[in-house]
Amino acid sequence: MTILFHGARKLDITGQVDDFWMLVRGDGILATGSGKEMPTASETVDVDGRWMVPGFIDLHGHGGGGHAYDDGPAAIGGALAAHRAHGTTRTVLSLVANPMAQLRESLGVIADLAESDPLVLGSHLEGPFLSPEHRGAHNPDFLIDPSPYRVDELLEASRGTLRQVTIAPELPNALDAIDVLVEAGVVVAVGHTDATFESTREAFDRGARLLTHAFNAMPGIHHRAPGPVVAAFGDDRVTLELILDGRHVHPQVAALAFREAPHRIALVTDAMAAAGASDGDYRLGSLNVTVRHGLAVLSGTSTIAGSTLTQDVALRCAIDNAGVSPADAVAAVTATPARVLGLGHRLGRLAPGFAADAVLLDHDWQVGEVWANGLRIA
């Protein structure tokens, strides 16, 4: 069966094309072009002048729709459905710090799910290898140093589906752990860290290629101590995550990041269960979280505990509030995260040979339809 999308305003990392058409067969894009001459197909979808962009990819999120990713298969399914309705077609499932046995169990659940659902890209261990001083919404009782045997345990439990690990590089054994993880094909991120500019650069030289939610849970930029963010700005090998909800990072600081690290910004949600759900009381791992007016904090504190963000809102915030060009904003939720994961050859573009993942948006960047692997999912 073939599907022909036509009459689109296409926007991806290669640029904008008006009157765009795309022919899909099965789960992949067979051909693309523009104009009135188009191939025939079993089914046609009139995009009617709306934006067509690649499916959004979220490198970092913990749940949504009232469900958390560490609460088992049913909860994961509910959370994924909430984010897919907002344009996220491929997801890395993030886990907060928990006891090792629970992390191994969660990694196994995600590995099973990744085998049955190609839209699940694998897991992200945001904990437990974090600085206690910058732990954010991670239980300090479960923070540990990244010793070799612990890293091997977690790699084994993930059965090859561990995509990303966040590490504070100043911890004992952290640099050796980076070596092991990089050799295993895992993307290593620097985050929840007290690292200096110099120690962050050393982590990047050892193979770390990502900065977890830049500016948050790490030293800020100081004129005598530039810190991790400036180290990432100056290293073309490194991509910076941004939680662009207007609360974690001011839009003008986000604009600065886009200017300083062009094509190296990946918008992420870091969403907890309340994303796409209502205010109220929730759990993030073992900790209680209160959500009021869309802001999630550890109960009884002012510590931000993830977000209630979805990728479409991040896209609009980048364009409307931070003044980022639509092309750069779209790349930050599509091609850039695909490249970070080593999947830039099949995800993040609307071109022949790529996965048939697409989001149709109106002229205010509101999601209309979501397609993944050639099927409409929202």
TrEMBL record:
Residues bound to Zn(2+): 126, 192, 213
Lineage top rank: taxon: Bacteria
Annotated active site: 270
EC code(s) of this entry: 3.5.1.25
Entry annotated with the keyword Lipoprotein: no
GO biological processes: N-acetylglucosamine catabolic process
Signal peptide bounds: none
Binding site for substrate: 137, 216-217, 224, 248, 304-306
Alphabetized UniProt keyword annotations: Carbohydrate metabolism, Hydrolase, Metal-binding
Domain Amidohydrolase-related: 52-363
Gene3D superfamilies in UniProt: Metal-dependent hydrolases, Urease, subunit C, domain 1
Cofactor(s) listed: a divalent metal cation
Co-factor: note: Binds 1 divalent metal cation per subunit.
Protein family per UniProt: Belongs to the metallo-dependent hydrolases superfamily. NagA family.
Name of the protein: N-acetylglucosamine-6-phosphate deacetylase
Organism: Lacisediminihabitans profunda
Organism classification: Bacteria, Bacillati, Actinomycetota, Actinomycetes, Micrococcales
